[in-house]
Amino acid sequence: MKVLKNTGIVLLIILVIAQFFGPEKNDGNIDTVNAFIAETNPPENVLNVMKTSCFDCHSAKTNYPWYNSITPVNYWLDEHVKDGKKHLDFSKWSEYSLKKKEHKMDELHEEVEKGEMPLNSYTWTHDEANLTQEQVDAIVTWGKKVQADYKQQLSAE
User: Which of these, 108, 122, 30, lies nearest to 76 by C-alpha position?
Assistant: First the structure.
């Protein structure tokens, strides 16, 4: 019993100390998505959805919830953001080749249409990020149009 108590105390001390450390925040400038917005020209309703459902994990700026201050939750959230940006980073849109942009738009509308994005783990804590069928349809329609524009540009090259 004494070993269990000592183990619990050590774990508690480690947890308290861990609260003073955490991953670097994704705290860049949200204006970095402006090139993406200007180039793809999403309608206002699509842009609003992207602001509430996409940019936190797929841009240089994340709006963190209060519980991001708690270790180990902050590491879990950091991993989500890093993984999201690895797959698609709207802040780096201007660095993507035309072919990559076309491919990313294809993935974007397919993932949304299949209900794969936004992630369930995100919508559990961000109710406003749950998409209605109308919002899904708007994103898919816009995404397919932008993708078609990129395909046309690629065929003209």
Answer: 122
Query: For residue range 19-33, what is the model confidence (pLDDT) as tens digits?
Result: 666 778 877 777 899
Distance CA 24, CA 27 (A): 8
Is the C-alpha dihedral spanning 121, 122, 124, 130 positive or negative?
A: negative
Q: What is the pLDDT of residue 18?
A: 61
Per DSSP, helices labelled H in 41-97 are 44-53, 73-87
DSSP 30: G
Which residues is 61 bridged to in the sheet?
A: 27
Name all contacts of 35-42 with Cβ < 8 Å and 24+ positions apart: 35/93, 35/94, 36/90, 36/91, 36/93, 36/94, 39/93, 39/94, 40/105, 40/142, 40/146, 41/146, 42/142
Instruction: Give pLDDT tens digits for 86-100.
Output: 999 999 999 999 999
> For position 92, what pLDDT does the model report?
96
Reply yes or no on whether the pLDDT at 144 is more than 80.
yes
Instruction: Provide the token pair at 83.
Output: 């993984």
Query: Residue with structure tokens 């206002």?
Result: 44
